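Note to self: user wants both folds in one dump. Writing first protein now.
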Amino acid sequence: MVVLTEQEWRERRTAHRERVTRWTSPHRRRQHHQRKHPVLDFLFTYYSFRPARLERWQPGVGVVLENGQEFLSRKGFTEVPGGVALDPAALTDKRRDSAEFILGLLSATASRPARLGCFGLHEWAMVYRTEPGDVRHSGWPLRLGHEGTDEVVESMPISCTHHDAFRFFTPQARPLNELQPSRADQVRLEQPGCLHANMDLFKWAYKLDPFVPGELIADCFELAVRVRELDMCASPYDLSELGYEPVPIETPQGRADYVRRQREFAEEAAGLRQRLIDTCRDVLTWAAPSTV
């Protein structure tokens, strides 16, 4: 067990909160004024981790918090010699199953080469052959209009491997995809070049809450923010009014830029994915029944 002095854990907790309120505070203000944001709302609506939970720090397993009795009001913590720590009994069978699934999924994803030829066409397939009032972000224009968007979708092969992106394709776009990924295919198909798979590292981190350190959740969240920005810059929407310059994947230069940035994110995500894999293993070992 690692022991954090009261000063150490309070400093880490404060730093964590200050770090994530850069994102949570503006989101709360937008909610208060009922303003939608086509890029950043996704991080708080598609993903189910509430801002208050994102702001909440925890040390992870195997760490004792000196004079940390205030953590006893939170589920999963217990008193131990020297302070307060997470309780292995808090890892229920359901949470153990979740940790094992996440470990298996992330390990399978990490074992594959990155596929970098999708060019972000999943966002285009979500508006393919729609009417102006049918698109998700109806308050924002399509850069090429509906007809031009449809022409882009029909001009290039679509190779989306991510079920949670594919399920939002329009019915007309689904047959155009190289694959027909389902939930059952997730472990078999997920690959480390996929923007959505790399954003989802945030989801897998918070699914392990409170057993994953708060800093790792924040690292995954900040990666998800930046990946989401590329996702929408490469989308058919014109978001330049918000400061998001288009990545025009309908052009050779735009596709090259997309692949370059996609590769950089895949490399960065690989480190976070490995940290989550290690955390899953640590959690499962830490909570394993003693055989002594």
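First done. Writing the second protein, which came from a different request thread.
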Amino acid sequence: MKILVCISNVPDTTTKITFTGDNTEFNTAGVQYIVNPYDEIALSRAIELAEGGKGTVTVINVGEATTEPTIRKALAIGADDAIRVNGAPRDAYFVATQIAEYAKSNDFDIILCGRESIDYNGSQVAAMIGELLDIPSISIIKKLDYDGSTATIEREIEGGKEVVSVSGKFLASCAEGTAEAKIPNMRGIMSARTKPLQVVEAVAVEEVGKISKFETPAPRGSVKLIPAESAEDLIGLLHSEAKVI
């Protein structure tokens, strides 16, 4: 069994976000990057499925050389080898196309990724890869079991859960609950230095979309605390200030 896990290089959640070039470019100065947390969940489940000699786990990232420390962390967590597609990930279609092109020439049984990246929150790449490869794509899964030929997958839906069975090759995007993110130990960190990391050149992709401008959310407004026994004051403020009733 061969598993491909797609990982994103994203700013740490504590990063202060700013933009340059009249708000058209993300300011990378001083930013610490990490493996996208949802992708770490996908990677952890892949490692569990491959344990005991049942398979191998390859991670793939679309990015320039600056993403290699993040890729090495994925190797330290437990991936067997890694691929870096050498290209700046300008949009979801570009990323999905690069991953699909690599997967077409390599026989993977399962492709896993996170439900979304925490920087753009687009939830687009997984479905695009599935479409480009013409394989089943199951989004935002919470549980994945695999017997070597058939996968049983659980998804949360409104008011309950959905259980899906899929045979053959498939792609799934993982959410919380699919696995617990693994912390690399010293042995993993040391072995990551020598694990294979192959660099392949990006293929040409038509530009179908472009970010024209970024905007940060408006600052939070002030908060007024109303004592529980002063319900009439609260109602008055909802009428006169908030104007919601």
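Dump finished. Worth passing along: The first strand starts at residue 2 and ends at 6.
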